[in-house]
Amino acid sequence: MLVVALAPLLVLPAAHAHRDPTLVVRLTGISPAQPDGVAIEVIDDELTYFVLGNDSVEPVYALDPDGKPYLEVSAAGAFGDVDSRYLRASPKNRAGAKVVERPCCKGDGTWVRLTSKASWIWPDPRLDPVLRDDSRDQARGLGALSSEPLANWSVTFRGVDGEFEVNGVVERKRVGKVVTSVTAAPAELDVDIIEARPPQIRIGSGKHEVVVLDRAGRPYLRVSPKGAFGSRSSEDYQTNLKALLLPEDRGTGWARVAGSAPGWLTWGEPRLDYSAKLPTASSDEQQLVINRWRIPIEIDGRQAEIAGQSEWSAVDPPVLDPPVEGPGFWAGDARTYAVAAGLTVAVAAAYRAARMRRRRNDAEG
Q: What is the model's pLDDT at position 30?
């Protein structure tokens, strides 16, 4: 049985470091290409973060505007200069940390080991640049916003082959609503969508055993009349669901999902996440499908799938007052955003908070 969420989600991005809920920070390109084994990402959530991963033995350095390294990441772990304002090291990183010398920066800065893992996440202040004044655009309504970015940013990194630039923009998102629906599912299951960021899937398995496969095709979640369980060995579990659904131990095998009723499972599914696909001010679309998704499952050992889509449609924007503070502060009709927050169910907020804690803990741990 297919059940479509009745209440659309008004899409107003969460407040970021720049304090404007209609802005998004986006990575647009890396030039020249980063070295093999290196991954760089920007996460624009409650704060805006860089994520740097490097499983190579050759280190990659993040450089400050003067060309001085302040972060080093390689297969040996992550090291940082805790005196640098660009690293924004936490008290946890500073307290009792042993100062070490790094080949790049002998006698320069206070370097400590941040983690033994080959990745780090941090809110570089250059991801929150000074914005151009678009108050005239705002006075005409968000639908009339210029397609020109409000700011451009660039951060330099250095790898084994030399320096490379990571570039991006800050731009305004259009206000719209999103309806996520299930378009195909086995008839013997109850499948529901809870609009959130990302949308959540709710499965009622009836008398059957249902196994959800992760993005690598491995068992991820399992639900039956005996209860709901998650696989600790699944990469999707390791990166997305541990903090919210499963115990914090580092074991293997299956763990019971806390708070789930027998035969029912609800989870925030990353394959339904559409946040990076929302239209920006440069788009004149009034309605479009921004995400089509497919979730492979097994029912009593038989292969099947759940499929669906998220459809965005524009809404009439409010007329906004001009900014009353400096660049980067939005001072429009806050009541509109209070209503939007009320439409986002509380469990979605719990998921987002848990996911961010998970990212920070894994990066800093």
A: 94
| Contact present, 295 and 281 (Cβ < 8 Å) | no
- Is-contact 15 48, C-beta < 8 A? no
Q: What is the mean pLDDT of each run of 10 residues along the chain (365 residues)?
A: 44 46 83 89 81 92 95 93 85 73 86 89 88 55 54 94 94 81 96 86 95 91 92 72 46 75 87 80 80 96 96 69 35 31 34 44 49
CB-CB contact of 119 with 103 (8 Å): no
Phi, psi (deg, nearest 5) at residue 66: -90, 5
| Cβ-contact 81, 110 below 8 angstroms | yes
Range list of H helices, the chain: 91-94, 135-139, 235-236, 242-245, 334-343, 346-364
Pairing label, strands 23-31, 162-172: antiparallel
Tell me what pLDDT residue 325 has: 37
d(CA 344, CA 199): 10
**Structure tokens that stand for 118 in this block:** 């080959």
Q: State the chain's maximal CA–CA distance in angstroms.
A: 67
Of 26, 277, 24, 52, nearest to 157 by C-alpha is 52
Q: CB pairs under 8 A, 24+ apart, for 128-135?
A: 128/16, 128/17, 128/18, 128/25, 128/48, 128/328, 129/153, 129/170, 130/327, 130/328, 131/18, 131/23, 131/170, 131/327, 131/328, 132/327, 133/323, 133/327, 134/172, 135/322, 135/323
SS3 content of the chain, % helix, strand, coil (to 5): 15, 40, 45
